[in-house]
Amino acid sequence: MNPVNLVLATLVLAAFQATGRVCSNCSGTGRVPCAEHRSVELARESNAILCSFYAGCTKCAATGSVDCASCGTANADADRAARELRSAAAKRFAGFEGAAGRPLLAAASAHFDLVCELEPMRAQGKKRSQHELLHLYLDRMEQAYRDYLSFFALGDKDITARSQVFLWATRADHEKVGQALCGYTTFDVEYKRAVEAITSLWFDGKKLKEDEALHHCVVHQVVHGLMNAQPPVAWTGKLRMGWADEGLSLWFEDRLLGAPTGFCFWLDEDPMMRAPIQRPAVHKLLEPGRTLDFERLLTLDTIDMTREEQALGFALVDYFAARDAPLLRSLLDRMRARTPSRDAFKEIYGLTLEELATAWRAWVTETYPAR
User: Cα dist. 183→99, 180, 186, 292, 303 in Å?
Assistant: First the structure.
């Protein structure tokens, strides 16, 4: 079960509600800003359990805030729980820094640990500092988490692994920490899936041109981690069900950000892998009379898929999502239980492979624009 399910304010507010009052000094959060830090930086902390931006401050124990003196002992239980959450986050940060061999800028939210070692860049129309980017991406990941759970009618208890995301400005940091935490080195995305949900991304300016592209990639990887950390826990891509593994991440990009543009692998440096997926192109791939090796598509490992095959995976998830979200959830559950796609389709939808392919192609022809 996810070790952190509530933000600190929720814990403390619950304690105050039991007493029938809320502290006017801290508005029921149990903490007030540390006077040693600038208010503009402290204002960013509402989404974080702990942020290493304040590392080294002895007054606030590197948290950016201190206990509220006006609360007395009314929130003792919640305060103890809050301290435990901060302590657990600090231990995880220490592990990340041990892997990197140096201090890192990191923050923990309710469901994510994020290390942000990016250079300042423009995001949402203005230049953002590294600290701003840290909290901006923490918000974006929590938004993706909420939307994912809402769409599939899931709760925190249904996600078994706490997601950890690392965003790097240099390839050297990316590869060093990837080797330590994921067990291998590559300039591409490094990750662990299923039992763990770890993603390391290097902001390579040749491939990720700006914040928007990175945002797509982060949402894409977050969805990979969430989908494969649901019971029964398994990595569908490695089970040769890449159409679902990649298709679902692309679909949530489209849902949240308006286009399925992200991707996981560019091992052959094929420029087409960096091209956004366009519905008219999918319409053409599935038009009547066009050859489709549907059975092969359903047996590919994620890393073996071409951009066209990723686009077809997106369209198949799009079709299932439009039909019925609960049934799509059941389908993904069966696939993580190692049920082959053909058998899972029959079990969940009552359709043979041929019947499903016919219905899917007809839906795409009717729904997707031809140009």
Answer: 12, 6, 10, 37, 18
For the stretch 258-312, pLDDT in tens is 999 876 655 555 666 667 899 999 999 999 888 999 999 999 988 888 889 999 9
Q: What rounded mean pLDDT belongs to the chain?
A: 86
d(CA 15, CA 126): 39
Q: Which residues, in sequence order, are CB contacts of 42 under 8 Å at separation 6+? A: 33, 34, 64, 65
CA dist 183 and 195 (Å) reads 14
Statement to judge: residues 245 and 156 lie in one domain: yes
Task: Clarify whether residues 196 and 54 are in a common domain.
Answer: no
Confidence of residue 16 (pLDDT cuts 50, 70, 90): very low
What CA–CA distance (Å, rounded) separates 256 from 145? 11
**What is the rounded distance in angstroms from the CA atom of residue 40 to the CA atom of residue 37?**
9
Q: Which of 103, 118, 140 is the last residue of a domain?
A: 103
Q: Which two tokens stand for residue 39?
A: 């208010």
Determine the average pLDDT of the residues in 114-128.
Answer: 96
- Per DSSP, the chain holds a count of helices (H) and strands (E) of 13, 10
**Location of structure tokens 């593994």:** 245
Burial class (CB in 10 A: 0-12, 13-18, 19+), 257: middle
Long-range contacts of 195-198 (CB under 8 A, 24+ apart): 195/160, 195/161, 195/229, 195/233, 196/161, 196/164, 197/161, 197/162, 197/163, 197/164, 197/225, 197/226, 197/228, 197/229, 198/163, 198/164, 198/165, 198/166, 198/225
Contact 105, 52 (CB under 8 A): yes
Q: Dihedrals φ, ψ of 20, to 5°?
A: 80, 15
The residue segments making up the domain with residue 41 are: 1-103
> How many domains is the chain partitioned into structurally?
2
Please indicate, yes or no, whether residues 156 and 246 belong to a single structural domain of this protein: yes
Q: Which of 13, 97, 9 is nearest to 49 (CA)?
A: 9
Residue 63 and residue 121 in one domain:
no
Q: Which of 88, 103, 118 is the last residue of a domain?
A: 103
Residues 113 and 8 in one domain: no
Both 125 and 94 in one domain: the answer is no
Instruction: Find out whether 30 and 68 touch, Cβ atoms under 8 Å.
Output: yes
* DSSP 8-state secondary structure symbol assigned to residue 234: -
Whether residue 182 sits in one domain with residue 86:
no
